[in-house]
Structure formats: C-alpha cells, structure tokens
Amino acid sequence: MPELSPSDTAKDAAARAAVALVQDGMRLGLGTGSTAVFMVHRLAERVRAEGLRLRCAATSRATCDLAGQLGLRIEELDEIGWLDLTIDGADEIDPDLNLIKGGGGAHLREKITAAASDRMVVIADPGKVVETLGAFHLPVEVIPFGLEVTRVHIQRLLDSAGLSQRPMLLRQRDGVVFRTDEDNVILDLSLDCIGDPAQLARGLSAIPGVVEHGLFLNMCQLALIGSPDGSVIEL
Ligand code: 5RP
C-alpha cells in the first residue's frame, strides 16, 4: 500500500478501530465516503483472514461496488431486515454526537440504514469534530419536481429561524447537476452555525419536496476519531 497522508492515516486508524468491533455473525451497515472506504478495506481484510460470516447492507452504490470488488457479499437492507451495527463517516460531529452528513450525497440511504441499526459508530479524522454544527454546508436532498418552490420554503424556514444563509447551492459535480442514488438533487445550505439543530431538522422534514436532510440527531452512539499518529480517541 502506498504511504498514506496524515489525514488518510487518521481515517484508517478510525476505520481499523471500528472494524475491531465487528464480530462473527453480525449484520452490518456499511457507510459511504473516503473514511468508509478505509473501513470497507479493513473489513474485507478481516473477513479474508478470519473467515467471518457477516451480512452487509451498503449505504450507496459506490460502497456496494467497492465491497463487491473486495469480496464482501452485499444484500438489500430489506433482505437482512435489521442491523446490529452501522459504521459510517461524518462531515461534522458535535459533543453530543449529533452529526452533519451528506458530503458525499448519500445521507438518505445512510440515515435509513443507521435508523435500522442497533448501533451507529462514526469514524472520522480530528477535523470533523466541532463545538457547534454548521460550518460545513448542510445537504438537503430534494425532489427535482418543484425545486424552486421547495427552495422558497427552505428560505422562509431559515429566515424565520433567524439563520443567516449565503446562496443555497444546487450541488454540481463536474459541471453537471449532481443526482443522488435515488435520482434526486441536493441543495447545500451554508449556515455557519446551527444553534438549534432539532428545530431546524423538524422544519426541514415538514417541507414538501424535502426528502431528507443531513442532520443526524441522537442517532450515533460512538465516534472513533483517528489521529495522524495512528492513535484513536472515543467520543
Ligand atoms: C456521505 C457522507 C460521508 O460519510 C461524509 O461526507 C464523510 O465523508 P468523508 O469520510 O469522505 O470525509 O455523509 O454522504
């Protein structure tokens, strides 16, 4: 394996620590993103070395493809029914283990998967740990039909919550509008500081056209934060 950057060493350390929690026979949810990529590699290594029998559901097509290439068998979440553990990355983690997710655009499937798990463990590098959520843009997955009307509803909600907001960006990738695995689009909200995440989450969920937002509140039980020196701390 080529030498890892300090940030990748931190991600890999967190991934290894999370994979150490996996036991034979477990039903697992596999997250999405660059940190989750390390986790899928480390999990595949353990399965090869120890012959672990696992049932795995993926939170995105990208993770499904990677896991398949590494020899992990992926099943539909509904085939498995319920999961013991989901391991996923995050864009921000606050002291109460509330999260912003969706930087990779997979937060809809990620939230469904985490909500169908006894336990959600988040893996991250130290740059993801914050005092207050909001410096990272908040992804909101939206149905393309009526997108501009939905945007107006979101703006009114933010205004009424007193949240200052720079332009709400329709996510693009390589110059074209990004489509999620469910063929929806994403509005990225630049909020700086989310004083009351629960209130904002309720307001966003109530807007027709909003499929899911990236606030994961009271869903994560443990965060494993890797460091560039390879050590890991638990939050
Ligand atoms: C994808 C996610 C990712 O878990 C999150 O963006 C963190 O990604 P990375 O590990 O690449 O920083 O929520 O929707």
Automatic annotation (TrEMBL):
Gene3D superfamilies: 3.30.70.260, 3.40.50.1360. Pathway: Carbohydrate degradation; pentose phosphate pathway; D-ribose 5-phosphate from D-ribulose 5-phosphate (non-oxidative stage): step 1/1. CDD domains: RPI_A. Its EC number is 5.3.1.6. SUPFAM superfamilies: D-ribose-5-phosphate isomerase (RpiA), lid domain (SSF75445), NagB/RpiA/CoA transferase-like (SSF100950). It comes from the Bacteria. It is an enzyme of class 5 (isomerase). The keyword Translocase does not apply. It catalyses: aldehydo-D-ribose 5-phosphate = D-ribulose 5-phosphate. Keywords: Isomerase. One of its GO terms (molecular function) is ribose-5-phosphate isomerase activity. GO terms for cellular component: cytosol. Substrate binds at T32, G33, S34, T35, D88, G89, A90, D91, K101, G102, G103, G104, K128. The active site is at E110. InterPro entries: NagB/RpiA_transferase-like (IPR037171), Ribose5P_isomerase_typA_subgr (IPR020672), Ribose5P_isomerase_type_A (IPR004788). GO terms for biological process: D-ribose metabolic process; pentose-phosphate shunt, non-oxidative branch. The keyword Repeat does not apply. Catalyzes the reversible conversion of ribose-5-phosphate to ribulose 5-phosphate. Belongs to the ribose 5-phosphate isomerase family. NCBIfam families: PRK00702.1, rpiA. This is Ribose-5-phosphate isomerase A. It comes from Paracoccus sphaerophysae.
